[in-house]
Design goal:
The protein has 2 domains: 3-106, no CATH class; 119-159, no CATH class. A hairpin with a 6-residue loop joins strand 3 and strand 4 (137-145). Helix 1 (2-41) packs antiparallel against helix 2 and helix 2 runs antiparallel to helix 3 (80-106). It is α+β, with helices and mostly antiparallel strands and 160 residues long. A 5-stranded antiparallel sheet has the order 1-5-4-3-2. It is built from 3 helices and 5 strands; from the N terminus they run H-E-H-H-E-E-E-E.
């Protein structure tokens, strides 16, 4: 009887593992589809706005962070110091996310990914503030719809 229960729990664990694997796969595929859509817009001179790109970067960071921790905790038995290390790793993950975010915010506009900390929408234009300290400038892009903008920079305003 106990042997039968043991086999049932193994089958349940296997089903749960497969379900978990499918969820992670779907999340990664959805994030990858966003990249494919971005590159399919590129030949037409269009990109997604920073609103979508900032959200995408944050979701990617959360999914990767959670996936790694779920894999780690799934393969080990629970101990309290694992929970403590998990909590302590959150600031490190946020720092890595912020460093990537900051890098994309200060690099010049040759990159096709408009991840930006400081952006605004005024009328039919998206304003991206680039640079750092003495080299700050604003790039003005045309807005096609609330989620898509043109890659061509209309004008640049240097901030003194």
């Amino acid at each position: 009887m106990s042997k039968l229960n043991l086999e049932e729990t193994r089958e349940e664990k296997a089903k749960g593992w497969k379900f978990s694997k499918v969820i992670w796969l779907v999340l990664y595929i959805l994030l990858f589809i966003f990249i494919l859509l971005h590159f399919s817009l590129s030949p037409f001179g269009l990109v997604f706005t920073p609103l979508l790109w900032n959200t995408w970067l944050f979701l990617l960071s959360v999914v990767v962070f959670c996936h790694l921790w779920f894999l780690f905790l799934k393969n080990r038995e629970f101990r309290w110091f694992h929970l403590i290390w998990g909590i302590l790793s959150v600031p490190l993950a946020l720092f890595i996310w912020f460093a990537i975010f900051f890098h994309f915010s200060i690099v010049k506009s040759e990159n096709s990914v408009p991840i930006n900390m400081d952006y605004g929408i005024e009328g039919r234009e998206v304003i991206l503030r680039k640079g750092y300290l003495l080299g700050e400038y604003d790039e003005y892009h045309d807005l096609v719809n609330p989620y898509i903008m043109k890659t061509k920079v209309n004008r640049v305003r240097y901030i003194d």
